[in-house]
Amino acid sequence: MAKKRSIWKYAILGVLIVLGLVLSFARFPVAGTNYVYNGFINSIPLGLDLSGGVSAVYQAKLAPTSNVKDLNSAVETTVSQVESLLYDSGALNSYVTNQGGDKIRVEVASDSVSTQLFDLIGQPAYVYIASNDTFNVDDVSSYEGDLISSANIKNAYVSYDQENQAYGVMLDFDKAGADKLQQMSKVASEKSENNYLYVYIGNDDAIQLSCTEPITNGQTFISGGSITNSTTAQEYAIKILCGTYDASLSLVQTSVISATAGTNTLMYILIALGVALAIILAFFIARYGIFGILADVSLVVFTILFLFFLQAIPLIQLTVASLAGVLIFYAIVVACHIAVLEKIRNEYATGKKIPLSFKTAFKKCLWPILDSHIVLAIVAIILCIVGYASLRSLGLIILIGAALSLFCSLVVLRFLIKWYLPFNSVNPKPLRLKRSKILAEYATEVEVVEGQEDETPEKQIIVTDKEAK
């Protein structure tokens, strides 16, 4: 009965593995549609060093709303702000650098962002919120009423007003801006009529902001005017955000750049990985027999799951650095499988039966493997939180690799061996298991009765070498 269950489990797993391999590497058109399925491996976004990309150069000058008076300081601050904007827009492996003190150079992978984003960065929109409609954006200094500017905006992002069913831009203000907005909206709400504030975005006409009560949460939702749908709301959110930078940017040049690591680098790395995997799979079979075949199956499961998560998580982009992380994790998962299988060999060599060697080996390997992977996970989390944009992708890869390595080493491999034991739990030959030479001369297995604490050799159960065979 146990054998039949194991056969069914192996059969189901085999079907899933075949399906996973097809989904991972096959490329085919989907019947009845124009969609072409590319497989997991071809759907992983590539970074600038592997795929090439686009570069843009911006001329920088002090923004009219900036409190910074030194252009170099403004440019340095804006470099990090543009890098964060690109990362949030999907360019995980972008390079933003100060060029010549008054220019900023941006390089992103070809498929990371649309070229429209380059244009929007070069079209910053400065926001002013005035208490009346007499404000003139071309003569800010002459305005005498209360005023909030882009300098008080912390963030701008697309939002949706369920009540009015309209897309717009949500503005988050800093402490000074939030206090002034509360004061201005309070005054406006106390008017008998025309209780509005007026929002000026760039050179657009003013948008009326109704203030029936004071705005106390430091946020306001802007809609109407040229903001008519999700697309225009996204464009305005980007331009407003760029208007909060200390340096105002204007696009002066764009160009196409080639892959910095070479056009064939990825192909060479994949070929090397394939050859290395073939050698490892052969090594497992040669040294561990059937247990090695089961370890190979576990590694195939690891490969399928790893490729799936690399293409499924949108924050991951494959670069030379992250490829190194992938290769390292293949080495780690192989080392974990070897550690488990070697422990089984050692436990069997000391005199235990095959089932007991299997259970003891996994028990002894649990915490050493778990401890090392916890350390890797902590490092990955730190990279994701405090690392630069290019390092966050590597941190995510390390985190995924650690989780999958644990799963395949301690769960998948364990069940594969457990399902095999009903077929063979006594014959060590197909498993490449051997007794220690010293024990083989006298006895092949020593088992102490469970729960019996007696150190006298006479009360131990001894199975001779002849009986074990």
Provide the gyration radius in Å.
Answer: 32 Å
Biggest sheet character: 4 strands, antiparallel
CATH architecture type of the largest domain: Up-down Bundle
Report the average pLDDT across residues: 84
Text of the CATH class of the largest domain? Mainly Alpha
Strand content bin: 15-25%
Can you tell me about this structure?
The chain is an alpha+beta fold. It has three domains: 2-27 and 263-438, Multidrug efflux transporter AcrB transmembrane domain (Multidrug efflux transporter AcrB transmembrane fold, Up-down Bundle); 53-122, Alpha-Beta Plaits (2-Layer Sandwich), CATH 3.30.70; 127-243, Gyrase A, domain 2. 51% of the residues lie in helices and 17% in strands. The protein has 14 helices and 15 strands. It has a four-stranded antiparallel beta sheet with strand order 4-5-3-13. The protein has a four-stranded antiparallel beta sheet with strand order 7-6-10-11, covered by helices on one side. It has a three-stranded antiparallel beta sheet with strand order 8-9-12. β8 and β9 form a beta hairpin. The chain is elongated. The two termini are 25 Å apart.
